[in-house]
Amino acid sequence: MSIRTFFLKITMCLALSSIITSVHAQQVVEGLKQVFDVKMDDKGNAEVEVTMKLNASQWENYKRSPLSNNNSILKKEMERALPKYYLSDFKYSEEPMERTYKIGFDILGLSTLGKGGKWQSKLETKNPDVTKLSDREFVITQNMTTNGLFINQTQKIHLPSNANNAKIEKDSFGNSLMTYSTTIGLMSRILTYAGVLLALAGAWLVYRNSQKSKNNLKVVTKQSAVA
Hints:
Layout: H1 3-16, E1 29-40, E2 46-53, H2 56-64, H3 66-69, H4 71-81, E3 87-95, E4 100-107, E5 112-113, E6 118-122, E7 129-132, E8 137-146, E9 149-158, E10 164-170, E11 176-181, H5 183-216, H6 222-226
Parallel strand pairs: 1-9
Antiparallel strand pairs: 1-2, 2-4, 3-4, 5-6, 6-11, 7-8, 8-9, 10-11
Helix pairs in contact: 1-4
């Protein structure tokens, strides 16, 4: 699953909890603001915090929904939306004066190790609106409409402290992906090569020992046995 699909699934899951209004599906209601803050580690895992900023009517409807009063339901909905990922350390908080709620969790394997020992995250879009704040910090902005609700989304991505050569590249289909290198990725490649060499060395030793065993075999005859 790409990082864009991950964001989209979380967006749809949380947006549905905020759109309980009486408007028709074709009518676009006043939008909400959503901010993803993603802190990657050097193993491809991430600490994610999602902030949902609602207007007055959306906040009122959200507070009447069972999701705001039972966080376990919200957690189960997110796990159902992301069956391929393992979510842990689920956290929830509210800021009523700001009509904002936040959800935090840890996720395994958001970034994958690709060719050449590079970590990569697929963005699944050809021309994303990406701003590079530093060598390890990126901001991606996009607007979307789901079930009649306009969503202004900001994705803040923080790469690990040992990340380098971070950039936006294109795959064979022209879609964008974020790539970067870490010492973990380099060590993984070195360990892979070392493992192959050890396997080859082990196979050679087995072969050599088998040849020695054949040369050391003696044919026992009656004369040699009597002697």
